[in-house]
């Protein structure tokens, strides 16, 4: 098989991990891709739910600084990095990947929240 071809998805593996105790997740690449597709569906659904929470959070913020909430951002990045550290033995570098992903996500959510901010008005003080 040439390295320029896509891998076969319906046959067994052509390589094995030499790491003691490694547990395979599937017997074919096709099975793994189905699992990954299912996980992607769950991840996107969770991101959509998170987006709705971010949109609703707009109601609690007085100005653009509060929308950006730099202290909250730092806390989120630190927390997700720590969560990823628990799984780093299985995927070295996962904390860096998760933090970078969240930095991109949060940047996008803040941009969206900024747009929603302009669709709100202050509630007059009693």
Structural class: mainly alpha
What is the tally of beta strands?
0
CATH C-level class is Mainly Alpha
CATH superfamily: Chorismate mutase
Number of helices: 4
CATH architecture, by name, is Up-down Bundle
Strand content: under 5%
Radius of gyration: 21 Å
Spatial shape: elongated
How many separate structural domains? 1
Low-confidence stretches: none
Terminal CA distance reads 75 Å
* CATH third-level topology: Chorismate Mutase Domain, subunit A
SSE order, as H and E?
A: HHHH
Reported for the largest beta sheet, the result is: none
Helix residue percentage: 55-70%
Give the overall average pLDDT.
95
Structure description:
This protein has 126 residues and is mainly α. It has a single domain (29-117), classed as Chorismate mutase (Chorismate Mutase Domain, subunit A, Up-down Bundle). Helices cover 59% and strands 0% of the residues. The chain is built from four helices and no strands. The chain has helices at 29-57, 64-68, 70-85, 94-117. Helix 1 (29-57) runs parallel beside helix 4 (94-117). The N and C termini lie far apart (75 Å).
Concise structural overview:
With about 130 residues, the chain is mainly α. It has helices at about 30-55, 65-70, 70-85, 95-115. The protein contains four helices and no strands.
């Amino acid at each position: 098989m040439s390295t320029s071809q896509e891998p076969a998805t319906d046959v067994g593996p052509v390589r094995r991990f030499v790491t003691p105790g490694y547990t395979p997740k599937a017997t074919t690449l096709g099975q793994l891709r189905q699992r990954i597709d299912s996980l992607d569906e769950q991840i996107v659904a969770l991101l959509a739910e998170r987006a709705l929470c971010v949109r609703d959070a707009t109601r609690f913020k007085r100005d653009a600084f509060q929308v950006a909430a730099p202290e909250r951002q730092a806390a989120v990045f630190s927390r997700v990095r720590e969560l990823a550290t628990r799984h780093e033995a299985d995927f070295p570098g996962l904390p860096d990947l998760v933090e970078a992903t969240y930095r991109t996500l949060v940047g996008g959510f803040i941009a969206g929240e900024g747009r929603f901010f302009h669709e709100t008005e202050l509630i007059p003080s009693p």
